[in-house]
Amino acid sequence: MTYKSNAVAKTREALKLGGSVGCIRGDCESSETADKSRKAERTHFMHKIEQAIAGAIRARSHNALITETFDLARAQARTALDNGLQPFPVVIKDCFALESVPMTCASRMLESFTPPYTATVVRRLIENGACVIGKANLDEFCMGTSSALGAFGPVKSGLSDESSINEDWLIPGGSSGGPAVAVQMGFAEMGLGSDTGGSTRNPAAFNGLVGLKPTYGICSRFGLVPLVNSMDAPSIFARTPEECARYLKMMLGVDPLDATSLDLPRERRRVEKLEGLRVGIPKEMHNDTLSSDAWAVWNAAAAALERAAEDLKRRKAMKEVVLDGEVLSADHAITLEPLAAELLGGSIGGARIEMVSLPYTKYSLICYHVLAAVDVASNMARFDGISFGHRSKSEDESTSSTYGLLAASRSESLNEVVRGRIFAGNYYLMKENRAKYYEQALKVRRLIADGMKKALGEVDVLLTPVACGPPPLYSDLSKGGFQREDADDFYTQPVNLAGNPAISVPFGSSSEKGLPIGVQLIGAHFEDLLLTDIARLLLEQKRYNVVTEDSIVVTCYW
Asked: Is residue 333 within a helix (H) or strand (E), and if so which, with residue range?
């Protein structure tokens, strides 16, 4: 009845204004078209989530997910569409809380734990359309850089040989290997990881992805199980720097539930061209463990940043430009004056490469290990099998006391790496050792942070390797006693000690098997979006085939 009276009123109003009933019919047709468009859009995005779920099912042999949340993702997609948002599939590392979904940290200790709350960064992503496909696998309690040390089996890179993946596989990096593989294999557009010493940048490099570790504090840590409280940073895996910037904007901001959270200042520097940028090359990063392939890619990235002028000229060579009424070729125009280059759509200038020094970087590994062990000992104290966590069912006499029960519960549910760090942390905190180890490590950390600040006062960004080479096979890593992990950590840990932002950018590949190798850009505090801009410009140089064998061989910056 209401619909009829409204239609009659609308008809009368149209006739009164000199219209016709045909106008009303046109409105109806327009409304029907809009309805069809909305339905098609809804179908498209729901299909997108279904495709992600199907991809996750196909990739089960890679063990990237500990918990699958397919029905939840579907429900989140419907809610997002109802709210006018565009749903997108994400995978979150299983050390972030998601209400009513198990959170294990890849440990038997938390095998049966389900949090009653959601991590702030996860909630913010969901509020912007994220649909959680699953909780991703990792190294137990984030301790490792291989994603092979979790209680529920190793994560296997999507670049591994499928025919022999059960016997040997390529390491996906760690500790955030699960979300990296999810993005690399295409069943997540964004992977949420944590980064304490390179745990996002390392897997990003090993999987050919972009990995952004934000400035410490601009993304809330509430709901993230802590490893090292003063270094942990929720971090992002994506295909492009632009996507990293988009997801970062969704996540950042002060959180009343995290006293260390900060706002990213609004007025920060952004760039659209390489001209005028100063790029620093820390000489200490060229060490004995750096492979020739990683060196070549690092050197090629520096060449690409510096040679933007030549490369713009090359990629525009087939175009013409009108200057003062005269038609000129792109080559000729660029050689005449800067105005011509502007008309061609870019700058003819590249970045300036400068050598810088991070003199205390050589102490970063030992400094990190002392500080990390101390925080681990403190943070793991809550996992006692009494408050919550795995509780030993042993009826031996040794478990009759509180200390005995604690020891049995931890021995049964924690791996050797975690137990070793607990032992080491308690040793460093003993009265006779605290000043000798822990307090000295804090002083060295300050020197490392000051050195980073000084270097970034001389240049805009630092360019370094991410790891000493391409991803290794698990068999090779285990034969070497996992020593490769420390070699790789050397390039990434100083950033966490200083709290700076950094981004891993895929820029090259190994000479033998064509496996991905990345480079790292490090920025000053709060210059996160500047880093994504420069990373985008660097990848543009790569896409235009800027780097040639000649530029790698002839140009030697250090």
From this structure: helix 330-336
